[in-house]
Amino acid sequence: MKKALLQKVKRGEISFHEIDKTLDPNASIELRRTAVSELTGTSFNHISNYSLDVENVTKRNIENMIGAIQVPLGVAGPLRIKGEYAIGDYYIPLATTEGALVASAHRGCSAITFSGGANVRIFKDEMTRAPVFRTKNIIGAKKLADWVDANFLMLKQKAESTTRFGELLSINAFTTGRTVYLRFSYNTKDAMGMNMVTIATDAAVDLILSRNDVELVALSGNMCSDKKPAAINTILGRGKTVSADVFMVKETISEILKTTPEKMAEVSYSKNLLGSARAGSLGFNAHAANIAAAMFIACGQDAAHVVEASNAITTMELTDEGLYCSVTLPSLNVGTVGGGTRISTQQECLNMMGVAGAGDPPGTNAKKLAEIIAAAVLAGEISLIGALAARHLARAHAALGR
Predict the structure, then answer these.
(1) Domain-embedded: residue 226
(2) What pTM does this model have?
(3) Over the stretch 68-87, which tens digit does the pLDDT of each residue have?
(4) One of 30, 167, 266, 302 is an active-site residue; which one?
(5) Are 228 and 283 in contact (CB under 8 A)?
(6) Shared domain check, 393 and 341
(7) Which one of the listed residues 30, 53, 98, 167 is annotated catalytic?
(8) In terms of residue numbers, what domain contains 345?
(9) In whole numbers, what is the pLDDT of the chain averaged over residues?
(10) Looking at 53, 160, 262, 397, which residue is catalytic?
(11) Number of domains present in the structure of the chain
(12) Could you confirm whether 302 is annotated as catalytic?
């Protein structure tokens, strides 16, 4: 039976996803892998080795599964954090193939911890979805915007009827001619929340369409803005808007980073601020995406949201004692339930930091994870700026990352 099924798959008579209707998950994976191996002439000696719970992963995380990719996992720390949710010393899991990254993050963690720890605060927590509508003319556009303002509570009730934990916070209208974008903002508690807000907004859209003479163009009109560089996320925020800072004295900078506060401040100003502005960048930082990506992969976050995490602003200012360092991430989209956080390997990384699953009260674990990531990004910024100031970057990559 399997041989006949394999031949049908190879001939294109049965699609990859249809195999699941005939075989159990493990057999389906093996058959797909064999088909791809024979069709491409590739031997799969490694992607077939994994410890994932296939039953759960194939139901919720992946389609047409043929195996798993392994990414090396390193650890940095301890990193001392003085947040509202993350308080204490944490070991930071980093999944990456970039040599020198974990070593750099570890050095930044040492500098922060030696300085007494990083302060971290979350200023905003909202996940967005922005459907786009077409009206007859600008008169209709104004009527729609006014109707949404006047009927917010009714729309809130409709949207929240689809979720146990989601809370609709606001709806902001943006118009271009007769086109209207409605930016729905939600508190999604411990979930990153994209699926939650999509389903909730879809229900609210049904109500809007039933009461207004308008046409829905698309459930997402890019005013959200999801997984793309966007000024609106830098200005209004998306996910968690979180900041971390630390004061470092001259002796710490000299001993750990092998440079001076003056040199680091000059590098940060010329690179993070002037250089980014001259390049027209939305991210005014050294390499925030590096740490965010490594932690996202390790902790089961949606890796595409690294685009939004990179909208970070890093500052370094001279003080009488040394250097004030900060990083602000206006759009950090993370969660501790749902998505890839269910996968066993990622669960272990979340458990390492005490943030796996739902928090008590709801939302506290996701906020704790956001604070830890922000502090880790700050560690990465401090270490790289220090390396550039001391002219150690090329030397480190030559030794660790070639």
Answers:
(1) no
(2) 0.95
(3) 999 999 999 999 999 999 99
(4) 302
(5) no
(6) yes
(7) 98
(8) 73-124+231-400
(9) 96
(10) 397
(11) 3
(12) yes
